[in-house]
Fold:
Amino acid sequence: MIISIASGKGGTGKTTIATNLAISLESDIQILDCDVEEPNVHLFIKPKIDKTETAYTPIPEIDEEKCTFCKKCAEICRFKAIAVISKTVLTFPELCHSCGGCMAVCPEDAITETNRELGVVEEGRSGKIKFVHGLLRIGEAMSPPLIKKVKNYIKPDIINIIDAPPGTSCPVIAAMNNTDFVLMVTEPTPFGLHDLILGVEAVKLLNIPCGLVINRSDIGNKDVYDYAEKEELPILLEIPFDRKIAEAYSRGKMIVDEMPEWKEKFIGLYNNIENLVKKGKN
Amino acid sequence: MKELVILSGKGGTGKTSLTAEFAALSKNRVLCDADVDAADLHLLMSPDIRQETDFLGGGIASINHDKCSECGLCIELCRFEAIKDNFEVDEIACEGCGVCVDLCPENAIDFPIQTCGKWYISDTKFGSMVHARLGIAEENSGKLVALIRQEARKLAEKQGADLIITDGPPGVGCPVIASIGGATALVIVSEPTVSGIHDMNRAIKLAAHFKTPVMVCVNKSDLNIKQAQAIEKLVKKQNITFLGNIPFDPVFTKAMVQGKTIFEYDKKSNTHQVVKNIWTNIINSPEMN
Structure:
C-alpha cells in the first residue's frame, strides 16, 4: 500500500497527518518524506539515521582533445546547458536535465558523464517506523530526480506513507505518481479551497483515488465542504482548530502523543483509505 | 527600481496574507505573484484582468505511428521512461529533452510546443499586478517565474513605479531560485515551530548562496513565544535584520473569507498596527536602501 499525502497549498498539515498516521498504526510501516526542498517529518518522528547516501545526477564532461567543435551537442540540448564558442565548449551543469542527448549525438565520443550533487537521501528508523527522506542541496533547482531516488526505497509489501511537497507542478507529480491513494489535506479557507481544486485536478490527471482531510475544520467558511460534495470527494477526517494542537506542533510534538484519543481516529482514517483502495480495484 | 520578494521556506506561514498587507500599505508599486503553481494573491486583490497571454514552455514528444518502424531506439535513448512499449508517449513522464525527436531514424517523432499556462496583467485595488497560472502538472515553473518578474519590471518602469512586491513560492527549489535573482531584498516569513525554523534556515542559506540580502519576521509568534524569541536571537546572531513578531490572529482568515486584507477589514486591529510597523521597518531597512 502506498499512500501519498498532498495539499496544493502549503502549511495545511500534510506532515502532521503523515506522521500521526504512521505512529498510530501497528502494521509494518515506512514513511518517505518527498518534500525534499523542506523536509520536516524527521523533526516530529526523530528517527535515528543509519545510512546517508549522496544522490547525483549525470552531467556531461567534454574531452576537448577529441572534440571537433561540431556543435551537435549544443544543437540537441533543449536546456541551453552546452554552448560551443569557436574552439571552446562551455557547459552549464545547473541547467542540465541529464537527458544524455549530447553524449548520444557526439560523433567523436568526446563526451562522458560526471556527476552533479542533488542532495542526500537518509534512511533510518524511529521505533517500528522505517524512515527515508531526501534533502535537496541548497542551490540545486531540480527536486524531481531526488524525489524519484527517495521513492526507490518504497517497499510494496508494507504500508508506505509519502509526504509530498506543496504545489501542483512537477515535484508534486513526481511524489504522487504510481501511488495507490492520494490523501489531500486542506483547510476551509479561500486559499485552501483554491489550491485544493488545483491539487485535485492533478490527482485526476494521474487517475488515482483521492480523499480529503479537512484541517482546522471550524475556521473560514463552508465552501470546501460544498466543493467536496459536488466532486464526490470523501471527507475522511476533520480536525478542528485547537490551540493545544498548534502549540504541540510548534514544539515538534505529535497530536496522538498529546491527545491519545486521536489515535483511534487515525486508525479509522487508514481503514477508510484501505477500503476505498480495495473498492477501486474491484 | 527596487524589488522585495516575500519567501518562507515552509508553506502556509502567511506569505500571501502579508504580501497583500504590504500591497495595501505601500504606494506607487507593482505587485507580482511568483507562486505560479498555487497562486493565491489574486484572491485578496480583486483583479480586473487587462491582458492575458499564453505561456509557451518546451515541446513534448509525439510519435507519428504512420512513420514509426518500431525500431525501439527512442525507448532505449529515453532516460525518463517516457516511451511505453506500444510506442505511446507518457506525457507526464516526458522531460521535453527532444533526444528521441532528433535521433529517430524515421523522423517519426514530432515535438509540438506546449502551452504550459497563462500570465496576466491586472488592475487591482492596490495597483497593477502581474500574475500567472501554470498548467496542472507542468514543468517550467522557474521559467514562468522569471518571465512574470521580468514583465512586472517592464510594467513598473512604464508606470514610473519605484517598487515591486513579489509573493514568492514555498521551498528552496527551481521556482524559488528563479524568484530571487536580482531582487533588492528578501523577507522570510517564519513561524515559531520546529518546521518553521528548520525551513527558514534553509531559505536563509539559499539567500546567502545567491548573495541576496535577507530580513526575517515571525508570524503567529504567540503560538510559541519561546521559539519566536529563539528565532529572533538566531537571526540577529547572523546579522540579519529582524523585522518583528506578528501574533496569531484569526482576523487574517476572517478578512480572507471576504477577499480582503486586514487593512480593509479591521484597520483598528492591533495586528494591523503590528504589520504596519513591520512594513515601516522594511522600507527603512539598510537592505532596501
About this structure: The mean pLDDT of chain A is 96. The first strand of chain A starts at residue 2 and ends at 6. Residues 185 and 213 of chain A are 5 Å apart (CA to CA). Chain A touches chain B through 59 residues (CB under 8 Å).
